[in-house]
Write a structure and sequence with these properties.
alpha+beta, flat
């Protein structure tokens, strides 16, 4: 089986005649995620106080994510209640 290594895109404008076909070669970067995770912080360079502040920041972020999960679960439960037969 042959792998697809190119993409074809179509553009069509009303009243402009037939669609324009443009062929593009795909690069390996096209398969990479568009947003990359930031590298982890170098903890060896941080002071004890800075590490404590970093932990507090991470705990605040964890709490924010837990609140978002709880809100989404509540919304899902509400939707399931509406569509239950």
């Amino acid at each position: 089986m042959e792998t697809l290594d190119r993409a074809v895109s179509f553009r069509y404008r009303v009243g402009a005649g037939p669609p324009v076909v443009r062929e593009e070669t795909m690069e390996p970067e096209d398969f990479e995620p568009r947003t990359k995770k930031p590298p982890p912080k170098n903890l060896d360079e941080m002071s004890i106080e800075a590490l404590g502040e970093y932990i507090a920041e991470l705990e605040a972020e964890i709490a924010r994510v837990r609140e978002a999960i709880a809100a989404k679960e509540k919304a899902r439960e509400g939707a399931e209640a509406v569509f239950k037969f």
